[in-house]
Amino acid sequence: MTTTTAPPPAVRTARKRRRVSVEQRGWLFVGPFAVVFALVFLAPLAYALYLSFFREQIVGGNAFVGFENYLTAFADPKLWDGFLRVLLFLLIQVPIMLVLALAAALAIDSARLHAAGFYRIVIFLPYAVPAVVAVLMWGYIYGDQFGLAGNINDLLGAQVLRPFLPEWMMVSIGNIVTWQFIGYNMLIFYSSLKTIPGELYEAASLDGAGAWRTIASIKIPALRGSIVIATIFSIIGSFQLFNEPNILKPLAPNTITTFFTPNMYAYNLSFAGQQYNYAATVAIIMGVITAVIAYVVQLRGSRQEMR
Predict the structure, then answer these.
(1) pLDDT value at position 268?
(2) Count of CB atoms within 10 A of residue 68's CB?
(3) 161 SS3 class
(4) pTM summary value
(5) Burial class of residue 168 (count of CB atoms within 10 Å of its CB; 0-12, 13-18, 19+)
(6) CA distance 181 to 209
């Protein structure tokens, strides 16, 4: 029978000090991020939530109204008009962009494409262009009175290209977003393809698998996690659609309204209408909707990956 003796008090004290010292060093590393995260994310979020429960009234000033702002927002046709617009944009533009990015990544990863590095840089280059500059550039191209579209119309002698018409505006914006972010998503997919062990390709080759069979059985399954991440980022970006319609608005004032997207609606409520409380309410509602949809996509993607 063996007996264990407790370490002397001095040893226990030394271990406790060492443990506390390790924890302190950990907090020193995490501390700067935690402070910045609290200041730039948690504090504005808490303040927006606080503002959403108040309303500026003619008599009584800023008064607590509870959930009245939310009830007003749920019945606001302008908010839901913009929401349906970005939802339709998401359902059409995001799959097209991700499929094109996936095709580009697979093409660059294949050994059959010559000068793969050159194509990788060319496809990624639009993402390096500042968003405002990109929208201004495309706005000039779309101009049917002064830009490239106008020059083509003059050449044809008819108003064939009119990207600023209401029925074409979301297509025009979708083209800009796709042009900007194909390279970003392509890089995510391409990086994941580079992590696939070479032994899998060798085994597939020995089994007689061709290029398409290798893509379907090895590359696509390995990209599931990356596809989920790219989809989540694209969903968030779609619901945050603001720069493109806001910058193009002076070029198409009759097409792009102040509530064209929920973000534009919140922006104009706050800075043009001085309705800070209601703008905060719209922002909170859209944030919750975006978080829920992104979580559902992540949960579904995780379940499929576990299979």
Answers:
(1) 94
(2) 15
(3) coil
(4) 0.84
(5) middle
(6) 32
